[in-house]
């Protein structure tokens, strides 16, 4: 090979190397600019990662939607950072100002959009099931009929009736991702109720007329339905506990209403009070067989820490509160004053 030919080859090789360096440098610069530049969106967007989706599929989707400007660079980003390839299924909120890097970090950390559902104090099981049926972002996977739910959940805790779901779901706000299971949320609510009931039971006052925590849960549900005024819960609990201790009937309207069921039209009649059901505490002695609603911690605490006193009666005053009496004569006078006037 001549000297001139050798120089020519070196020159060509050098130019190729230079071209490669320039090519890689340009792409390196473009890659860094890509991963740290805002996505091509002008407002918030929701993206969904479905089961089986991977970075290759998502990069093509996002590129076709115009969210990212280069699908190859996104794949390179994931390849250079293996932890970013472990994306989680769910819905994600893409904010204005997000970059490809922050987006993949969010997907790999599973920071999905959170929805919520609130179980309200005093709601009963029928109302609760209807509420969950209307949740668009949840998968309603409860058995039919609903009563079979007791076969899935542990509802026999602390003396409870294992075939009755009433009262066993703790009122609280529960957060979930889209397409979550109703059953999964009810399991959480049931576990929370058992935990709270056990904590309150262990700290209860001595000498209460309950054989087990389940009976305290029944009482708490009645207290929950009788008043929404915090300062009255302990006082109402005191009245009911004293009546149980004296072998008096509880004579509380919410239990009658629960015994009537969904057909209740909003007005208790004399016939309703005289119709014997297992929940009509004007006709039966002691507690009804199950709770009548979902009580919160405050009502459970009141049932296990009733206020001392001599009152055995109370009547609604019409303003949300109650008037308490020690004797039947005082109570009848209060009924005439507050009820018959209305």
Tags for this entry?
12 helices; 9% strand; 342 residues; two-stranded antiparallel ribbon; two-stranded antiparallel sheet
The overall strand count is: 8
**Structure classification:** mainly alpha
Indicate the low-confidence ranges by residue numbers: none
Spatial arrangement of strands, main beta sheet: 1-2
Mean pLDDT: 88
Protein name: Endolytic murein transglycosylase
Keywords: Cell inner membrane, Cell membrane, Cell wall biogenesis/degradation, Lyase, Membrane, Transmembrane, Transmembrane helix
Site (Important for catalytic activity): 226
Pfam family, one: YceG
Provide structural commentary.
Belongs to the transglycosylase MltG family. Its EC number is 4.2.2.29. This is Endolytic murein transglycosylase. The chain has three domains: 30-109, Endolytic murein transglycosylase (Dna Ligase, domain 1), CATH 3.30.1490; 115-200, no CATH class; 205-340, no CATH class. Helices cover 46% and strands 9% of the residues. The chain has twelve helices and eight strands. The strands form four sheets. A two-stranded antiparallel ribbon has the order 1-2. It has a two-stranded antiparallel sheet with strand order 3-5. Strands 4-6 form a two-stranded parallel ribbon.
Give the topology:
Blueprint: H1 3-36, E1 45-49, H2 55-64, H3 71-80, E2 90-94, H4 100-109, E3 115-118, H5 125-133, E4 138-139, E5 173-176, E6 180-181, H6 182-202, H7 213-226, H8 230-245, H9 253-260, H10 270-274, H11 297-304, E7 313-316, E8 322-325, H12 328-340
Helix pairs in contact: 2-3, 6-11, 7-8, 7-11, 8-11
């Amino acid at each position: 090979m001549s000297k001139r030919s050798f120089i020519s080859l070196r020159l060509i090789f050098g130019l190729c190397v230079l071209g490669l360096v320039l090519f890689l440098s340009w792409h390196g610069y473009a890659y860094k600019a890509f991963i740290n530049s805002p996505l091509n969106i002008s407002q918030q967007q929701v993206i969904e990662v479905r089961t089986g989706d991977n970075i290759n599929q998502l990069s093509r989707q996002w590129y076709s939607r115009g969210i990212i400007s280069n699908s190859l660079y996104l794949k390179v980003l994931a390849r250079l950072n293996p932890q970013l390839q472990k994306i989680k299924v769910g819905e994600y909120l893409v904010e204005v100002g997000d970059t490809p890097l922050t987006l993949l970090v969010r997907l790999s950390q599973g920071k999905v959009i959170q929805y919520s559902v609130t179980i309200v104090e005093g709601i009963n099981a029928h109302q609760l099931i209807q509420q969950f049926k209307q949740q668009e972002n949840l998968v309603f996977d409860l058995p039919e009929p609903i009563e079979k739910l007791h076969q899935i959940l542990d509802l026999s805790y602390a003396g409870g009736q294992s075939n009755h779901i009433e009262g066993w779901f703790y009122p609280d706000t529960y957060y979930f991702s889209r397409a979550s299971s109703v059953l999964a949320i009810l399991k959480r609510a049931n576990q929370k109720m058992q935990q709270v009931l056990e904590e309150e039971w262990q700290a209860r006052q001595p000498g209460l007329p309950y054989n087990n925590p389940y009976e305290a849960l029944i009482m708490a549900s009645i207290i929950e339905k009788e008043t929404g005024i915090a300062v009255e819960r302990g006082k109402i609990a005191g009245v009911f506990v004293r009546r149980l201790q004296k072998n008096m009937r509880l004579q509380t309207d919410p239990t009658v209403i629960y015994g009537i069921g969904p057909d209740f039209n909003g007005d208790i009649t004399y016939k309703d009070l005289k119709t014997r059901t297992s929940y009509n505490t004007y006709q039966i002695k002691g507690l009804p067989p199950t709770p009548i609603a979902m009580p919160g911690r405050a009502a459970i605490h009141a049932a296990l820490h009733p206020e001392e006193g001599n009152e055995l009666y109370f009547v609604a005053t019409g303003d949300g509160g109650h008037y308490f009496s020690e004797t039947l004569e005082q109570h009848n006078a209060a009924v005439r004053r507050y009820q018959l006037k209305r």
